């Protein structure tokens, strides 16, 4: 790899945006979309990106499995586990890990004594993470949602029709780029 390609790899790992990585690596902004896409398709660059991502995942402990486990905690939260039988909320240190992980925020009112020390604290609001969002992510992961447009019958793909229309005129596409879903 060239020195510029090495910088591209390092910059790509910042935000996984090939165009911006190309610009930050010193390629022309005018050609950055094309260069970024081409770089992602080069085997040595793709291998280096994957190696760096694997190394980062090992170092940070952030893996697809761990992310999936955290989403599952939010999706399958049983809020009853946060409360005592009398309806009062359990102290935070008595919550199990799954319940504590699902709490997005707390609003507490505090009563202070004359010296500024907390005499009594009372929970005013408990905000939970987005359960529907977590369930949607899990459903998408499991292939339960069809997010892709599918055409049935003899109809031609609208994108194909557009490309044919452009080819039949004097209009030429400015640039094309491969999209990455990484």
What does this structure look like?
This protein has a two-stranded antiparallel sheet. It has helices spanning 3-15, 18-24, 32-41, 43-60, 64-75, 97-101, 131-141, 158-167, and strands at 103-112, 118-128. It is built from eight helices and two strands, in the order ααααααββαα. Helix 1 crosses helix 2, helix 1 (3-15) crosses helix 4 (43-60) and helix 2 packs across helix 3 (32-41). The protein is mainly alpha-helical and 182 residues long. The model has no long low-confidence stretch (mean pLDDT 83). 47% of the residues lie in helices and 12% in strands. A hairpin with a 5-residue loop joins strand 1 (103-112) and strand 2.
Summary keywords:
182 residues; mainly alpha; 8 helices; 2 strands
Q: Looking at the structure, what is the overall shape?
A: elongated
Percent range for β-strand residues: 5-15%
Helix content: 40-55%
End-to-end separation in angstroms reads 21 Å
* Class by SSE composition: mainly alpha
Total beta strand runs = 2
Mean pLDDT: 83
| Number of helical elements | 8
In sequence order, what are the helices and strands, one letter per element? HHHHHHEEHH
């Amino acid at each position: 790899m060239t020195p510029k390609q090495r910088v591209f790899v390092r910059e790509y790992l910042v935000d996984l945006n090939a165009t911006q990585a190309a610009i930050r690596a010193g390629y022309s902004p005018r050609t950055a979309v094309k260069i970024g896409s081409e770089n992602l398709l080069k085997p040595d660059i793709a291998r280096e990106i994957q190696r760096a991502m694997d190394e980062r995942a090992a170092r940070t402990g952030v893996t697809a499995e761990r992310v999936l486990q955290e989403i599952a905690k939010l999706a399958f939260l049983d809020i009853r586990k946060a409360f005592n039988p009398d309806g009062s909320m359990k102290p935070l240190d008595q919550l199990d890990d799954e319940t504590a992980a699902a709490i997005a925020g707390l609003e507490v009112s505090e009563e202070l004594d004359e010296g500024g020390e907390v005499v009594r604290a009372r929970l005013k609001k408990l905000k939970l993470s987005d359960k529907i969002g977590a369930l949607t992510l899990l459903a998408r992961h499991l292939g339960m949602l069809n997010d892709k447009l599918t055409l049935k019958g003899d109809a031609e793909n609208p994108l194909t029709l557009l490309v044919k229309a452009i080819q039949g005129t004097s209009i030429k596409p400015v640039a094309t780029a491969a999209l990455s879903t990484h």
